[in-house]
Fold this sequence. Notes:
The protein has 2 domains: 3-127; 144-314, Tetratricopeptide repeat domain (Serine Threonine Protein Phosphatase 5, Tetratricopeptide repeat, Alpha Horseshoe). The protein is 70% helix and 0% strand. The chain contains 16 helices and no strands.
Amino acid sequence: xxxxxxxxxxxxxxxxxxxxxEYERALSWSEQAVDQYWKQGDPRAGDAFAVYSLAxxxxxxxxxxxxxxxxxxxxxxxxLTKATLELxxxxxxxxxxxxxxxxxxxxxxRYGEDSKLACQVKAAIKEKSFxxxxxxxxxxxxxxxxxxxxxxxxxxxxxxxQMEQACEETIALARDLAAGGHYKEAVxxxxxxxxxxxQLKDPTSRIAALRECGIFFDRIGQFEQSESLLRIAAxxxxxARKREAYAEILxxxxxxxxxxxxxxxxxxxxxxxxxxxxxxxxxxxPVLKHLDSINRxxxxxxxxxxxxxxxxxxxxxxxxxx
Length: 322
């Protein structure tokens, strides 16, 4: 894995540490590599920065490491982007999406959001959006710059009548707000994305908005609202013949039903999802994990935020879908 990176710079100890969850060790190794190549003026510092940025977010850092950087040479930025995209393929954790978002902001500010590099990173973020748990980590010090840039981008796209892209950015904004603990605002963004996507011919954005909002409600224990949204998302995906999206929604629905205690319905949805995806598909792992929990009669280890202030903030919130 990561053979090209390994040949250009020996970051294998840091990468291995990242893979097994030893984030402090990964951070230490990559920081040494950054320091070594930066002092030498070697563009391979970009490779080291890639690992360092991922390790920083994995270790719980709340701010982008790129704020510390000066004017990186273009060749270094190119290597940073290439290495980050290559590394990101191997991870599906929230911190991976956060690191990609940090890089996207850096590239957008430096080259423009429509630049080739920025678009490549944005595509990677979008690809990983279904892996992202929108409420797994609560960061009270939400990155205001990221939110402001998202809002500006939404306005820019709406002015240009690029409504599909605007909807995608609204979903991403909801995700960022949820990750920062701004649940009420996140719900309103999801509501806006669901309503806006209903006017689009292509159902892709509508499916994404419904599913992500459904997952969010599942995570905070609002199961009935979650089930409702996920069933609608499944219906839209099935009608549009979006087979993979339909299977992934069934997986989310099965998880939600399991969390509700509706075991038989959960098994049905999960088995349907598995049938569509196939055992070899990378998205089958969480499906099999939930089925194993059901068969063993144990609870799953999904990260959820039940009760307390979280539930009170959105308790009684109903998103009606027409």
